[in-house]
Amino acid sequence: MKITVVGSGYVGLVTGACLAEVGNDVLCLDLDPRKIATLREGGIPIYEPGLEDMVRRNAAAARLRFTTSVEEAVEHGTIQFIAVGTPPGEDGSADLQYVVAAARNIGRYMDGYKLVVDKSTVPVGTADRVRAAIAEELTARGLKLHFDMVSNPEFLKEGAAIEDFMRPDRIVIGADSEQARDTMRQLYRPFQRNHERLIVMDVRSAELTKYAANAMLATRISFMNELANLAELLDADIEQVRQGIGADPRIGYHFLYPGVGYGGSCFPKDVSALRRTAAEHGMEMQLLGAVEQVNALQKQRLVNKVERHFGADLCGRHFALWGLAFKPNTDDMREAPSLDIIDGLLARGATVTAYDPVAIHEAKKLLGERIRYAANPMAALDGADALLIATEWKEFRSPDFEAIRAKLRQPLIFDGRNLYEPAAMRELGFDYEAIGRR
Ligand SMILES: NC(=O)c1ccc[n+]([C@@H]2O[C@H](COP(=O)([O-])OP(=O)(O)OC[C@H]3O[C@@H](n4cnc5c(N)ncnc54)[C@H](O)[C@@H]3O)[C@@H](O)[C@H]2O)c1
Asked: Given Cys at both, which of 147, 160, 261, 321 links 114, Cβ 3.0 to 4.6 Å?
């Protein structure tokens, strides 16, 4: 199939590469010329395990190409995926300017049937707006061309995006026409050879499904964070509680880890956008309001613990921070809790040296010279009063504790990801503060 992917970020690039991998003829469009230049030279602008090889392989086979030409992109694909950003607007709603601009471009240049597939996370009713924008452009050109509109929200997780796309647990398709449904079924057949994973529904329900999924996951995180904070007050251990409830199949073990709050490019903006959508319809989503409040407090949790230990004035104190990315296996720094932790420490007069295996170049764009950066985890510890952990990278799971103790001014760790066993840490001579652990 001839496919165009509009927007070559995390979602667009993964979508384009995976669709090319199974034999499609894919053209990825982005308006950012630097991104396209990097991609054309065989590099990739983001860190995502396995993606660079896949992009290179399919580019070499001429199944995956990149362009900044809107005209060429619209002309190429019978299927036009929209995978542009939907960042939060000032009022918390999803900013649809990029989606609408992409739609207008399609209407401006199409000269035959197109199946327009929205993969961006967009509020209910956006498909109607996209349809109207394309129709308006066609009318302005004096043309009457047929096109279909599909909502196909993306559920991939950064850090495991290739695996998620190649072996999805479900593919949600919101479509009103039989032709569109059939084309989507055909397109996704190679990704579901084992059993059917397509869940077909109406467009508005598909749009809402994406927000419902992210809101549910964010709720689980805030629930566990609040419970962890209570466990500390009650002298109980959240890790034991987690296992005790996770064993119930109605609850399950996934997404029950307390920590330093959720971040990333999706949960914060999607929870906020869903609340906003509800408000526009005269409804207050009280549960999600609480989820956001708990999360905002949790992002301060580690700094509060530091403050309890050292006092409110941290002038002259220096801290090592392991982990900058909002989660492991990505360089994405959007809404990363590490940023709140760094802000909190700096505001109290402390200095920080941070280490992250892949996110330092992204962090530098946001933090510049406000902190120092280390080339490896151990180098970050030099002269630090304590180690703080903000991201659960694998390489932090079993470090050389003797070496850590030797480098820190005092054997003190504030672990925002519960990586270690408190009893074992005590035996090693550490003062160890985790989240909700005894
Ligand atoms: N990142 C994730 O893990 C994830 C997962 C599921 C869904 N989503 C959703 O997918 C969408 C894209 O997210 P992302 O993280 O890939 O964003 P991103 O910011 O990484 O990429 C978006 C890209 O679109 C480009 N762009 C903007 N307007 C354009 C236009 N008119 N024509 C061509 N290109 C244009 C930008 O230059 C940018 O490169 C969002 O709605 C997001 O909520 C993201």
From this structure: 147
Spacing, Cα 381 to ligand 1 middle (Å): 36
Q: Ligand 1 in contact with 261 (CB < 6 A)?
A: no
d(CA 205, CA 225) in angstroms, rounded, equals 30
Cα separation of 29 and 228, whole Å? 45
Distance from residue 137's CA to the centre of ligand 1 (Å):
23
Question: What pLDDT, on the 0 to 100 scale, is given for residue 10?
Answer: 96
* CA gyration radius, the chain: 24
Cα–Cα distance, 110 to 145 (Å, whole number) = 8
Alpha-helical segments (H) within 24-141: 33-40, 51-60, 70-76, 97-109, 126-140
Gap between the Cα atoms of 44 and 16, Å rounded: 13
- pTM of structure: 0.95
Pocket flag, ligand 1, residue 98 (CB < 6 Å): yes
Distance CA 46, CA 415 (A): 27
Q: Per-residue pLDDT tens for 32-72?
A: 999 999 999 999 999 999 999 999 999 999 999 999 999 99
The predicted pLDDT at position 380 comes to: 98
Tokens 């580690």 belong to which residue? Answer: 302
Q: Going by DSSP bridges, is the β-strand pair 114-118/147-151 parallel, antiparallel, or unpaired?
A: parallel
Which pLDDT score is estimated for 193? 80
Site to probe by mutation for ligand 1, drawn from 5, 6, 10 as the one with most ligand atoms within 8 Å of Cβ, is: 10
- pLDDT tens string 251-286: 999 999 999 999 999 999 999 999 999 999 999 999
Query: Which strands form 25-29's sheet, in the order they lie side by side?
Result: 64-67, 25-29, 2-6, 79-82, 114-118, 147-151, 171-175, 198-201
DSSP single-letter state for residue 120: S
pLDDT for position 196 = 87
Split at pLDDT 50, 70, 90, the class of 296 is very high
**Sign of the C-alpha dihedral, residues 268, 269, 270, 273?**
positive
The structural domains of the chain, ordered by start, are 2-201 (3.40.50.720), 218-433 (3.40.50.720)
- Our measurement of the distance from residue 107's CA atom to the centroid of its chain's CA atoms, rounded to an integer in Å, reads 30
